Amino acid sequence: MQIVAVGPVLGSLDSPDVEIRVFCTTKGFRLAATLTRFAPYSGGVLKNVLRRPEIRVAAILLRPEIAVEVEWRIRDSNGMELRHAKTPGYVELSYPITVSMTVRD
Questions:
Q1: 45/30 Cα distance (integer angstroms)
Q2: Which residues contact 44 (CB under 8 A, 6 or more apart)?
Q3: C-alpha separations of 102 from 32, 48, 64, 75 in Å
Q4: What is the 3-state secondary structure (H, E, C) of the chain?
Q5: Whether the predicted model's global pTM rises above the 0.85 cut
Q6: Could you say which residues of the chain have pLDDT below 70?
Q7: CA 87 to chain centre
Q8: Are the CB atoms for 89 and 4 separated by under 8 Å?
Q9: CA dist., res. 15 & res. 76, Å (int)
Q10: How far apart (Å, rounded) are the C-alpha atoms in residues 84 and 77?
Q11: pLDDT in tens, 64-92
Q12: In the chain, what are the domain boundaries?
């Protein structure tokens, strides 16, 4: 089974790298994903190119269902964790963003 976690909308100058940590839980697993926001940028051709990061996990279910939790965090280019971030044209988001789901076989 493939599980896909889609992150928030990012600008073209936000880092394409996503730091991912995986943790086992009693009922499944948890993904902690950290995005890096670059400093504000003015000008340039790619200014308005938006994207959404994706994490794809191949899983073999050994029980009828598992719990999956994905937590998206964001930090600035200096490493400081941000509590809010806004991509132009979208509403400001509060971080961390946590999504939980139950996956059934």
A1: 37
A2: 13
A3: 17, 35, 10, 28
A4: CEEEEECCCEECCCCCCCEEEEEECCCEEEEEEEEEECCCCCCCHHHHCEECCEEEEECCCCCCEEEEEEEEEEEECCCCEECEECCCCCCCEECCEEEEEEEEC
A5: yes
A6: 39-48
A7: 14
A8: no
A9: 10
A10: 14
A11: 999 999 999 999 989 999 999 988 888 99
A12: 2-104
The answer to whether 1 and 61 have CB atoms below 8 angstroms apart is yes
Burial 3-22, CB ≥16 within 10 A → b, else e: bebebbbbbeebeeebeeee
Nearest to 93 by CA among 2, 16, 10: 10
Give the amino acid at 92. E
